[in-house]
């Protein structure tokens, strides 16, 4: 082998190694330049994701590209700052906050929304809702928003409460009458009148009317009691108490009068009945003078007969007591017959005088009816005496006559009598105390009469 050939064999590999080395150097240099160039074209960005911040290098052109580069899917409700279309610059701060899905009920209207609010208060502000103290918010305004949270807001309504005519207002979210009154610190008794009812819902007019009950005295006929009432008319009060007024009944108060505390409402129970009775009618008495009869004596000539009438009365009773009995009609069933009575006009002429002998006064005549009586004496001038006897004898003008006072049922007036110790006399007088078996002897002298005293004596009725 020649020297040139050997030389060629030796120099050829060496040349190949140099070329390879040069290629490696070139490739390394290009890589370094490319890396430098690549790194040099990236921007440094501060990215905050759901509150966590990190610093990253990016070649993204916009904020939207940056978030896509970070595998963040942006929804419409998410918070992105600055906007997704903002160009990326070195040192830019980007924030993305994922919206939370919540359920919100506003005055009963429910919907699901996405929000970036931090608290319930922020959420309601985000919804342009101004919250007042009386509004109902659940959960509280300071509650942090969490995904899936349910939020409820109910606006308080202004309720007008009228108590016995006086108005007041209250703002509340309660819709039951009893709850509203309790919140207003208004006590209600079982007798009070509430409209709407305690268990009812507040009406669309947002009004409650309360009438406080008070005591009223109800007199129903003879029954009297105290009851509860609210301000109303007498007519409505009686209707509430289930008091039925009959045709003739009377209410002492006007039916349109307002009932006030401690009033007395009186119902008078009036009853009208018709009573038909048969009644005897008295007969008329006709007197006829009879000169043959002794004065003071009477004789029935014709007996009277009572008639019969049918009478119709209207009887009115108030509370069970009769207050009037009015004769409405009278019909004669049978006529009466008059009674005729003869009245004596004959005046007794007393022929028996005090000149009679003592023998005559002590000797009992034969015949006649004899019996014993209690006797006293009187004068024509005694207290209350007129001097004229029941048969018309004037004793003061005829002091010498012998006259005795008798009970006509025992000794008929006008009878001639014999009196033991007194003699013959006429039964010509009567006296208030002379009843039964008693007689009173007329004496002209007062002292003689007083001295006579009381004696049991024999008397004989001659005719």
Automatic annotation (TrEMBL):
GO molecular function term, any single one: hydrolase activity, hydrolyzing O-glycosyl compounds
InterPro entries named among the record's database cross-references: 3D_dom, DUF348, G5_dom, Resuscitation_pf_RpfB, RlpA-like_sf
GO BP, sorted A to Z: peptidoglycan turnover
PROSITE patterns named among the record's database cross-references: G5
Pfam families, per the entry: 3D, DUF348, G5
Source species, domain of life: Bacteria
Any GO CC annotation of this UniProt entry: outer membrane
Keyword Transmembrane helix: yes
Annotated SMART domains: G5
Record-linked SUPFAM superfamilies: Barwin-like endoglucanases (SSF50685)
Keywords for this protein: Membrane, Signal, Transmembrane, Transmembrane helix
Residue span(s) of domain G5: 267-347
Regions crossing the membrane: 21-40
Coiled-coil stretches noted in the UniProt entry, renumbered to this chain: none
Protein name: DUF348 domain-containing protein
